[in-house]
Structure formats: structure tokens, C-alpha cells
């Protein structure tokens, strides 16, 4: 989907984290090497950020904001497991949170809805619709 919707403004941001059963112990460079070797150079299709915490006292500021704006359905704010996803609209506002079990393809209708809204209202800007996710190997 990253290449399919790229020209319409979709950007996928990935935030590796090692807080889930220590499944992401490598350095930033090691993570990118693993992705490239195992997923056909997929690191080039996404924007990667350095590994940081998504829960606890060292939570990345972005995740503190996202978790506050979009808690889980049961009201919990912490990320429960790797691959939690957030869909952000073209204005930078958190729009929807997805469980770690949700597949990117299950988000397709929501992504298309936001891209349609973006393209209908922002013909002269370079704003982007963005998906964020925590990623562990």
C-alpha cells in the first residue's frame, strides 16, 4: 500500500521499539539491514525513526500524544504490543488507533477516506496522511 498510495500523499512512519519481549535488540543500522535482507529492501519504502520507548517514563513525545488522543477501546493508553498503528490525517490530527493484530490492509478503507478528504481540500499543499506504527522483528 505504501507505493500504491504514495502519490496521493500516504507516508508510513515506523518507530522501532524494544519494549515487547526484547524482540528488537539491534541498533538502527541493524534493524534496517534486517529489513532490507528479509523484505526486499523495504526500508526504502518507509520513513524510519531511531528506536525508542513507546511506554513508560522514556516514552517518545509523539507516542505520549497519540496514546492520550486515541486510547484503546477499553480506555487503556499504553501500547499493548508491537505493531500498534495510528492513522493521522493530513492536518496532523490523530484519526484512528488500530490494535497490533490489525493488518495494514484492514486499514485500507480508512486510508482511502483520509486521502480523499486530503485531496479534496488540499490541492496546493504538500501535507501528507501518515500512518505510524511500532515495529519489532
Features of the shown structure:
disordered C terminus, 18% strand, 137 residues, 5 strands, alpha/beta, 25% helix, five-stranded mixed sheet, Glutaredoxin
What does this structure look like?
With 137 residues, the protein is α/β, with parallel strands linked by helices. It has one domain (6-135): Glutaredoxin (3-Layer(aba) Sandwich), CATH 3.40.30.10. The protein is 25% helix and 18% strand. The protein has helices at 28-38, 61-69, 108-121; strands at 10-16, 47-48, 85-88, 94-98, 129-135. Strands 2-1-5-3-4 form a five-stranded mixed β-sheet. A hairpin with a 5-residue loop joins β3 (85-88) and β4 (94-98). The chain starts with 9 loop residues before the first strand and ends with a strand. Mean pLDDT is 88; it is low at 133-137.
Brief write-up:
By secondary structure, the chain is an alpha/beta fold.
**CATH top level assignment:** Alpha Beta
Give the helices and strands as they follow along the chain: EHEHEEHE
Q: Which structural class best describes the helix and strand composition? A: alpha/beta
User: Whole-number average pLDDT?
Assistant: 88
Q: Kindly, what is the distance between the CA atoms of the first and last residues, rounded to a whole number of angstroms? A: 20 Å
Rg, please?
A: 15 Å
- Indicate the proportion of strand residues: 15-25%
Number of strands: 5
Helix content: 10-25%
Spell out the CATH superfamily.
Glutaredoxin
